[in-house]
Amino acid sequence: MDPIPSSPTSEEPFSTNLNIPGSSSSSSSSSSSAASPSPSRYESQKRRDWNTFNQYLRNHRPPLALPQCSGAHVLEFLRYLDQFGKTKVHSHMCPFFGHPNPPAPCPCPLRQAWGSLDALIGRLRAAFEENGGRPESNPFGSRAVRLYLREVRELQSKARGISYEKKKRKKPPVLPPGDPPAGTT
Length: 185
What we know:
One of its GO terms (molecular function) is DNA binding. It comes from Iris pallida (Sweet iris). Belongs to the plant homeotic and developmental regulators ALOG protein family. With about 180 residues, the chain is mainly alpha-helical. Helix content is about 40%, strand content about 0%. It has a two-stranded antiparallel sheet. Helix 2 packs across helix 4 (about 115-130) and helix 3 packs parallel to helix 5.
């Protein structure tokens, strides 16, 4: 499989938050953008991610059509993106394993951060369905992709000494029956 070419196509004028060569960060303003409201940051990012994934499929050897794409191809794409990552993930043998801020450099690889991959998959899941895909055949929501993301989260959590626990929402205090709410006396 060949990497994504280094020159952007006319349908990919934006880069994703993931550091991928071949994407530029400039945007062109056209006369039609004045008439319609510009898309939200999320919608723009989702479109860029969708275009990047489709470019990856076109450059795949042999080229893949979207209906042929499976969870295994999505995992291949995520592993491909790792080479452009900026997050140091320490191996078990590294003396800095489990340290969030190591005091010296080490040869451990740079990878895509779990949070970036998780957000990317969320946007691609939505884009797949918006572009005519059926939810039950969405390769971005496959069990293999969910398990891979969980594995990456656990590995990075241990390797970097950072907890990825979900934040718990504070529940509003429960008033005993018969007590009026504060400020209504």
